[in-house]
Structure formats: C-alpha cells, structure tokens
Amino acid sequence: MPTLSVFLDVPLAPKTRGRLLDDFQKDENPNKVYLAYEVCMTGNEVPWLPPVVPKTLMKLAHDPSQSYEYLPEHGLEAFIHVATELLVGRHSPAIVENRVGGVHTIGGSGAIRLAAMFLKDWHRGPRVVYLQPSQKEQHGFIFQEMGFIIREYTFWDPYQLASDTGKLFDVVEHAPERSIVVLYNPGSFILPRKRWIKLAKVMKRKQIFLFFDVPDQGFISGDPDRDNKILRYFVSQGFEFFCSQCFSNSFGLYDERIGCLIAVALSNEALLHIRSQLDSYARYMWCSPPALGSRVITTILSNPALRVEWKKSLRGVVENIMLTREKVKEKLRLLGTPGSWEHITEQDGMHSFLGISVDQVDYLVTKKHIYIPKTGQFNLTCINNQNIDYIAQSINEAILAIDSPGSHLPR
Amino acid sequence: MADRDNPLPPKPSAQRLGREKLPPPVKDFRIDAFGAQPRTGGFRALVAALGLAMPSSIFADVPQAQPVLVFKLTADFREDPDPRKVNLGVGAYRTDDCQPWVLPVVRKVEHQIARNDALNHEYLPILGLPEFRSNASRIALGDDSPAIKEKRIGSVQSLGGTGALRVGAEFLRKWYNGTNNAATPVYVSSPTWENHNGVFGAAGFTDIRTYHYWDAAKRGLDLQGLLQDMENAPEFSIFVLHACAHNPTGTDPTPEQWEKIASVMKRRFLFPFFDSAYQGFASGDLDRDAWAVRYFVSEGFELFCAQSFSKNFGLYNERVGNLTVVGKDGDNVLRVLSQMEKIVRVLWSNPPAQGARIVATTLSSPEHFTMWKENVKTMADRILLMRAELRSRLEALGTPGTWNHITEQIGMFSFTGLTAKQVEYLINEKHIYLLPSGRINMCGLTTKNLDYVAASIYEAVTKIQ
Is the Ion transport keyword given for this protein (chain B) (predicted)? Predict the structure, then answer.
C-alpha cells in the first residue's frame, strides 16, 4: 500500500554538539590533542576511575542477597540520605529538623528536569531563569522546554582575565523579583564574607529562588565538605532552594546516571509535599531511577574505610590538576609568552578559561591541532606529561602569531 | 582548620545578637569563613530564641500529590502481620518460594561485566548503547524482518518501558499530525495500565480517550466495540496497543482478530503505538509473543514499539527499555531519530549503561541467548502452571461462575472477574491483596498458597454477591 510517510514533514534536527570532536577524530596529525573532553582524564589518557569504584562494583556483582526489585519512584532512600548528608553536612540543622531531602534522579540532568517541571507548576514568580553560558545546554534547554525565558550572566571577565563572583550583585539587582538564579558550581565562588552576607540579604529581599548545581563535589578544593560551604551558609540563613547534585565526575561513573535533586524547605511538611510532586513527574518519565550507580555510591559513602579511600583518590586528582595549572603557567613564563597567565592558577576545578582570543583559539585548532572550543574553556585533565610541552609551545606560538591590540580579548 | 569532626563554633552576625565580639573578618571566603554547621541551633532555633515568627515557606501552596494505588497495596501487605497473607498485587516475578528471582544468565553476565577492567564508564551516546539498541529492536521485529533489511528502523534506548513510551509520546505530540498538535486523539484500551494515561498526558496530549477492550459479561475481548471505536476515531488518531499479555486483563486478540484490527487501522490511517513489556514472558516463546508487532510491520505500517526488558530479564530496577521506530524508509527514520535525540537531551540526557550492557551481551552471544530463553521459559511455565492449578481448584470446589478465563488469559496478570466488594472481602477477611479491579498477579501464587487462595475466592464469590 503505497502511502506517504506520516513522518514526511519532520525536519532533520541540526547537530548542535560534537563538531569539535568529529574534527579531532578525523584529524590525522600525530600531535593532535583534544582539550574539551567532558570527563576527568588521567595522565594515561583514559577517564579517571577511583579504584574504590570497580572494587565496589565487583563486590556488588557477587552479592547473593542482591535482587533487581523496583526502587520506589523517588529512588534508593539510603542513597538520598548519604547524598543529602554529603551536600549539607551530616550535622546540618536542616537534617535534624527533617526539612531537607530529595529525589534520586537520572544524573544531574534528570534533577534539573524534575526541578524545571516543578517550578513550571509551582513557582510563584516570573518564568525567568538566570544562568551562565556553560549551562545553556543543560539547564538552558530544559528550562526553555518548560517555557522559561533564559538570561545569561557570566563571572568571567575577558578583559581582567579573572572570575568575579561579585557579578552576582548585578544579576540580583537587575533581576525581576522572584526570578530563578542558577548557581553552578558554588564551590568555585569567591567573595569576602561581608559581601556574602550582603548578597544573601539582597536575594532574600528580592525573593530570588536559588537553584544550586553541584556537578562535581570535591573537585574544587579536593575536600567535598569544603566545596559546599556557601551552600551550607544559605541553609543556615533559612533559604529554601533546590540543588541538583551530579555524582558522575566525583566517582568517575558517568554512564550510570547518578544524581539527586535536593530540596531545602522550611518545614518537613513542605518537604514531603514537594517530594510527592517530584515523584509524580518521575512516574511518567522513568517510573523509578536505575539502581546500580546509587548502590555503588551508597556503599562507598556509608563505609568509613571506602569513604576515606575515595576522598584520598579525589584529593590526588585535584592536586594533579593544581600541579598542571602551575606547570602550564610556568612553561608559558619560561617561553616568555606575552601577557599575564595568573588566571591559569587563579581558577579552579576541572575546566578553566584559557583567556585567549577567538582568532588565537582558531590558530591552535587549525594550525596546531589542539582542539579547544571557541570560548577558550578547556579541560585541565586533558593535559599530561606527554603533551604539555607541545601545548605550551603552541599557545606561545598562537599569541605571537596573532598579536594585535587587544589580542587577548575574545570577541 | 575546621573539618567534619571538629566544627568551628557558630558565628552569629552582629546584627542578630549584637552582644558578642565578632572575630576579625576573613578576607578569602574559601578559607573557613563560615566553618561547619553547628551541632545544635541553626536558623530555626535562632528564630525561636529571638521570639520571631517563622517566615512562611515559598512552597506553602504545594499540595501533596496522589500516590499510586499499587504502592499502597504493597505497603498494606507488608504491614499485615497475618501469616497466611498473600500478595497478588505485586508487579514482579516471584519463585515458588515467593522470592524475587535473578535470572542465572543475568548473574553470569554481570560477573563478566564486573571483571572487565577496561570497561569505559564515560557517558553513553544520547540514543544509548549501540549494541543494545540494534539487538533490542532485532528481538522485537525478528531476524528476518523486512524493515531491518530495508534499513528503515530506528532505536532509542530508554529508561524502561515508561521511558520508551514517554520519548515516543513527546515525539508524536511535537511532530505527528502537524507540528505541536497536542489535540491529536490518543486512544488507550479500557482498561489499561494507568501509566499510559499519565505518560501521554505529561507529554502534552489533551485528548486521551478509551477504546472498548474488556467485555466483563463474557470475560473476554470486546472485538466489536474495539473495531467500532476504530471506525469512529478521527483519522491519524494514535492507538496504544498491547503487543501481548494485555495489562491488566491478560486477554489478547487472536491472530485473526489482529488481522481485522490492522485492516481497520490501515484504512483509517490510525497510528499503532505498541507497548511490549512481556515478550517471551507471556507464552515462553519470543517469536510468538511478537507476532502482532511483526504482522503490522509486514502490512507496511509505520509504528512505534515501546519495549521493556524489566520482566523478561528480571532487571526491574536497572530501567532497561527501547523504543523501536519503524518508518517507510531510512530517510524518514533518520529525521525522526534526530528529533528524538533532542527530546532525550531534555528528559534524561543519556541513559544508564548497566542494564543495557547485560541485555546486549546476552542477546549477542549464542550461548547466553540460549540460556536466557531457557530462563524466560522457566518463568512463563511457572505462571502457566499456576493458572492451570488455580482454575482446577476453583472448578473442583464448585465455585459459581466460569473459570476458563484463568487459563485462557496470558502473561503475568489475570482479570478474575471478582467485584470490588469481593476484593474487599479478600483483603480484609482473608489477607489476600489484589487490585480493586479484580486483577491478580499469577506470580504471587505458589504451590504453598494455592489451596488457601482458591478456597478464599470460593468464599468471596459465594458470600458476597
């Protein structure tokens, strides 16, 4: 029966990601380097996996008491419990008062999705979300799908080559009341205490809804508790907010989609109501979340010896990143590369801005086969002993080759 | 330096208490400006100490959402202290000892996976693990499927059958029958699995209707009603069809009846969206359970098939599902999949690996595949046995009514035909838990409780009219 396809009018969706990786994979140059991997890499050019993880996976696979019974809609309770403790601290008054908890989700994305659906239905305020450009593809697309308007803000000042958390003041002053502000990676925020107190006051006055996103707790300072100090301050100041927690980076288990949406409320009753609504959204999307990843994390975090082992691995990785930063800066200095490179060591975490212009990035990609996105944001863990000299030399070359007034400045 | 075990003392702000001398301000926030949380006190205690009213929650208007009925049933069952209690509402397979069963092939394969030192744990692609997707669709459509040969199928790894339904529903709402036509009627069977309504509703469809399915009087399929509803449905309506082992009735159309259904659907341009959660689990035979889907493909339909591997692999909590897309040609499927990728990106971004790895490894190895088929047959056979045994006991007791539907129905569930009052009696008086619709899960029956359940049903039917 020859009929037309019912899909005839479906347009081909343009591919938004993956161009850089495609080009890198097709490149045959032996020196090629890819500095934009999402995951944390090791010096051997494989993704980082703390040894305690495969050890735990093996143990779980041989556990005869383990069955595959459905989890509840909100996921593994024990996992939510350890995730909450990791986030707000074991002794948090919010835990004592039973007003913090959440839902085990499909990674950080699943958490953002549930939060966005909840805010679409229940947020009493404008449908406006403020987020950083790096969050456009995660938070941005999801919130847009829910009908929110996205407004971008950034801490990175390409002229000062520095990150200025104080930009939040501008955001909050100009945002309409009750706007939603995504605070991505709060562990990397730097402000003097007095200014935090002031900022919190302004946020309270304007009833800004805070949506924290913790993508890799522990990757900033090497200590998961230190990384969450700001978030815990907001808990202590009586803020109600959401936080999406992603465990992929901190445990190297990207493919098991382990996340949590944590809600901090003022009362247990409110928390229970929120959870029930989040459950109902999950019911019609994934019914209940996958178990394995959450069981691995719960096992590690609940066992003192394994927990210590994990923290040690994490600290090791973070120390390597800090060391790489120092090395890159030093090599550029030794080469006499023009300009200031302090920003290399002043930023923290896995990803940083290189602080070079778009033309200079293009030079690196096309002439030196070093692949970085146009923003100049790159993954420190992709740099290792084998490629660091080539990278430093290439950056030096790019700066010298494309040296015009304001050449450090991205357009 | 403060750490988790030695918190700094709390630092209240001068404006709050005004009396204490504050320590000098610390310039860099990162260096312990706020310390760890105090063990007692905190915000609420402070507010109380100052005699202030608690600020109202911004979530004050959020009501409690309704829980799902079957969860309440399970909770009630768990709390029931009666030793004779039986749970016939459970949605998972149970052994004759009423225990969950991890398939031997799953145990074997998960050990194999855990032993693999070189396993890469990076994100899966958005559409999922390639080996899983191709094998999963192949299982549904058959090795010799013309659609596969003609390269006009696509697959999207999903979070269980629910996830597959959701991806398909979101796509259809966005791109089917116009652009963003949320008013396209979606027909689900009467009765059906409750989640069907929820998933299509959540995907944005505004007109969800039922089609006749269960004939309570004759305890079978109401084919006339079904076909009439299809005749009357607006063209291009979407019909959610159960591929086999209909949930909750256990009543499937015969091949001849499927042929009639397909004929009407073709003529009226109705879109078939199959839900296949029990392939292999229903009859013990993978191909037999996929007959309806394959027939529709051979008739040239474009269709979706949401597959779940929860039951037939016993992998309930690893959320293994697949949405199979069959189109007229490869180009159409390519475009459809490109849009589905965008949809997945804002649902869960990319799917979990473990369950998909287990299924892919099993389906692509002849040795494991054979073992899996045996395991599936074990489960299906036990259910068939329980059906036969329950029916024979009910008939031996002279239970009023006819009970052949118990063995004629197929899959995990049976629509007993018990009334709501009779169900209440069973729960309250006999501690036998089942849904108000009279649906029972055959897996809850064992050789040990068959007599008690049969006797209790006899009592319920004779005492309560």
Answer: no
